């Protein structure tokens, strides 16, 4: 049955914890014993958590993924306050959690970085995902980037016993054209003894073209890129060593590579006029096509008794590079390649007394960000109308930045009596940026092309910021399987330094830059400030024999506002508030029939001249809802679901049109293995994705008039009706 049977999670950046098996079981009080640790960094049970938590089980995720959804699309359907994602997009840009940014992790390793590259969900094949665990709302425990909450992707691991072989193969198509086909294949071997267990897997996906509800090809995304004609491979290995009952050492290594190889590009009627007509055409000649490549190493160690404490420790390394499609600027086509190298360490100690548990520890990370820009010959691009690219050279895209983050924290849980628990915590965070000298992007291009002999550099330097964050909460048991809670927590975000620094104004002689710097925004003259968010929440949950439900009301207030205009960022003191309702209910009509409904009602506003105005549609989230009814008798099952996106408008009159989509999925159990099927966009709805409308707002509506492009360049329609069929088995 494709349902969540427990309301909870076990998100840990420090250790994997054991969750109860939830598949094919009616909700019961026993499921509230699922262990959770991330929300407070205290190991406890679901019923003891004073926050809104969700577990997306492997069964639920499999239903959506094998029914034809992408990972970001499936999570949008299964997490009530997570915005719906586009199946065809590579990016999860502006896919908010409770209207704000989410910190996305794999086994507790954060994929967010100082440079806000939105490809955290282009990071793993769903074949390797055991479950996804979510904390909604700001948290003071995890540092920057989690003002909307935390989404932790927990990977599959080996289990003690005989060797097992897991296989999966599947296809998805809309029957529009011979190139409209997605192919999937994956294999994993796992097993081990009571002391040592391991798993090794390889997963492949090859995607073809995408077509909309009218059967027309969807335009390639020249902003954040898409996954048409894209091949991805995910290789993952893990080892778990338990020498005794007190110790556990786990090792994980992953290599993920997602590469586009397409002959289709954007044809511009006039490459010097971004407002000219555009269309998708064959004939693209481009060596540096969009890609995502990531290597991740993760080591975790736990010991239940170190000086009368429980110890959890984690060390990790992440190396990733991202490639983008060429985009026309000032008559020149250029495409970027950006990379992060990150390593970090986290240590947690836990001490228990009779009715008090104390967790305290520290974490540290260092990031190295580098970016380069490929400049293409303007004559070749112009004569081919933007389809052929001849590389002239490479320049810097942004200043290089090294970022260091260090934090210390403490968290306490006090069992006041049998029904009431009180929670409180404190975190100190220190962030330091070191930026390189940087010549303006356009001036670098002029030097490369011979229009300038030299240009002044915008000075780099070092800046830092520290901040204190607190949280507190109460949880009260109305009954053994019903709780209410209230909490307060602070989170914060730091602006992207690459968008903020390295901006300069150069003198001009006529229409050409002289290369002489007259003013700039740099590390030395402009401190980089963060935005603190105060978040308040009231919640209720229950688990009964025939139904379970969870509902929370929240209010979050930030003391500053960031505004992105094209490639630039503005920081002002205007406050920003986001408030809403998040909830889900699941009801079992009979032993086989079930229903579920979830919704997120959200309002996003910014304070301007003393009044609260609606936040821009680029930054705000639309209200969403999901409803489903299904049948499951253990041998076969099917589910019909409806997703709704509400309309969204802002103070300037820009509008995002909502839509409704219907989907159908199911499975049939064979003597060996299982067949899954799915139909996405069952009614073949023609609609514009949320990202399409936000991209138009960012690149066509709000930039200065001279830099605006035609809205048609960012018209990314949603994928029309598609059919999926897959087979999976474990031997």
TrEMBL record:
Residues 242-682 form the TonB-dependent receptor-like beta-barrel domain. Pfam families: Plug, TonB_dep_Rec_b-barrel. It is a multi-pass membrane protein. Residues 47-150 form the TonB-dependent receptor plug domain. InterPro entries: Beta-barrel_TonB (IPR000531), Beta-barrel_TonB_sf (IPR036942), Plug_dom (IPR012910), Plug_dom_sf (IPR037066), TonB-dep_rcpt-like (IPR039426), TonB_box_CS (IPR010916), TonB_sidphr_rcpt (IPR010105). A motif (TonB box) lies at residues 34-40. Its main location: membrane. Residues 1-25 form the signal peptide. Keywords: Cell outer membrane, Ion transport, Membrane, Receptor, Signal, TonB box, Transmembrane, Transmembrane beta strand, Transport. Belongs to the TonB-dependent receptor family. This is TonB-dependent siderophore receptor.
């Amino acid at each position: 049955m494709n349902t969540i049977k427990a309301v909870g999670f076990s998100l840990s950046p420090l250790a994997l914890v054991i969750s109860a098996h939830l598949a094919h079981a009616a909700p019961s009080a026993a499921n509230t014993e699922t262990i959770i640790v991330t929300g407070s960094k205290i190991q406890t049970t679901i019923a003891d958590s004073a926050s809104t938590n969700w577990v997306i089980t492997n069964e639920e995720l499999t239903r959506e993924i094998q029914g034809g959804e992408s990972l970001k699309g499936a999570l949008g359907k299964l997490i009530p306050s997570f915005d719906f994602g586009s199946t065809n997009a590579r990016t999860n840009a502006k896919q908010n959690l409770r209207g704000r940014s989410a910190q996305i992790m794999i086994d507790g390793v954060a994929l967010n970085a100082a440079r806000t590259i939105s490809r955290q969900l282009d990071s793993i094949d769903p074949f390797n995902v055991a479950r996804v665990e979510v904390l909604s709302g700001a948290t003071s425990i995890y540092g920057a980037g989690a003002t909307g909450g935390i989404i932790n992707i927990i990977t599959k691991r080996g289990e003690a016993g005989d060797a097992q072989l897991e296989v999966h193969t599947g296809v998805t198509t809309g029957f529009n054209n011979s190139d409209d086909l997605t192919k999937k294949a994956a294999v994993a071997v796992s097993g081990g003894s009571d002391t040592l267990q391991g798993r090794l897997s390889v997963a492949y996906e090859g995607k073809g073209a995408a077509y909309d509800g009218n059967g027309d090809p969807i335009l390639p995304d020249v902003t954040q890129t898409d996954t048409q004609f894209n091949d991805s491979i995910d290789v993952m290995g893990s080892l778990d060593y338990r020498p005794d009952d007190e110790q556990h050492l786990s090792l994980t290594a992953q290599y993920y590579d997602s590469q586009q190889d397409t002959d289709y590009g954007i044809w511009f009627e006039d490459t010097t006029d971004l407002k000219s007509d555009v269309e998708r055409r064959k004939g693209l000649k481009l060596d540096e096509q969009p890609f995502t490549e990531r290597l991740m190493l993760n080591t975790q160690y736990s010991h239940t008794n170190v000086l009368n404490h429980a110890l959890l420790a984690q060390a990790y390394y992440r190396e990733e590079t991202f490639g983008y499609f060429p985009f026309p600027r000032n008559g020149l086509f250029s495409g970027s390649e950006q990379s992060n190298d990150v390593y970090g360490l986290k240590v947690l100690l836990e001490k228990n007394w009779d009715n008090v548990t104390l967790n305290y520890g520290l974490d540290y990370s260092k990031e190295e960000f580098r970016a380069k820009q490929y400049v293409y010959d303007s004559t070749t691009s112009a004569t081919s109308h933007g389809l052929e690219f001849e590389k002239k050279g490479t320049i810097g895209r942004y200043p290089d930045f090294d970022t260091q983050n260090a934090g210390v924290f403490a968290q306490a849980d006090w069992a006041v009596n049998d029904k009431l628990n009180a929670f409180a915590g404190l975190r100190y965070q220190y962030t330091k940026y070191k930026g390189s000298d940087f010549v303006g992007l356009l001036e670098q291009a002029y030097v490369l092309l011979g229009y300038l002999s030299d240009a002044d550099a915008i000075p780099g330097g070092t800046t830092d910021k520290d901040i204190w964050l607190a949280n507190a909460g109460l949880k009260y048991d109305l009954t053994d399987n019903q709780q209410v809670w209230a909490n307060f927590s602070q989170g914060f975000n730091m602006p992207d330094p690459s968008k903020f620094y390295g901006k300069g104004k150069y003198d001009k002689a006529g229409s050409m830059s002289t290369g002489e710097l007259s003013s700039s925004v740099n590390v030395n003259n402009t401190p980089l400030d963060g935005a603190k968010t105060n978040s308040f929440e009231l919640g209720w949950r229950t688990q009964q024999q025939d139904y379970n439900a969870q509902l929370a009301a929240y209010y979050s207030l930030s003391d500053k506002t960031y505004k992105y205009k094209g490639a630039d960022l503005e920081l002002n003191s205007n406050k920003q508030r986001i408030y809403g309702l998040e909830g889900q209910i699941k009801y079992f009509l009979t032993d086989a029939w079930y229903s579920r409904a979830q919704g997120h009602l959200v309002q996003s506003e910014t304070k301007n001249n003393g009044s609260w105005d609606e936040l821009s549609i680029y930054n705000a989230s639309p209200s969403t809802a999901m409803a489903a009814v299904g049948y499951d008798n253990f041998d076969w099952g099917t589910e019909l679901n409806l997703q709704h996106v509400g309309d969204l408008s802002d103070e300037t009159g820009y509008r995002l049109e909502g839509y409704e989509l219907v989907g159908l999925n199911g499975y049939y159990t064979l003597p060996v293995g299982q067949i899954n099927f799915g139909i996405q966009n069952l009614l073949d709805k023609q609609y514009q994705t949320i990202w399409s409308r936000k991209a138009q707002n960012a690149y066509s509506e709000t930039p200065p008039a001279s830099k605006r492009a035609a809205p048609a360049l960012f018209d990314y329609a949603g994928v029309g009706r598609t059919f999926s069929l897959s087979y999976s088995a474990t031997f």
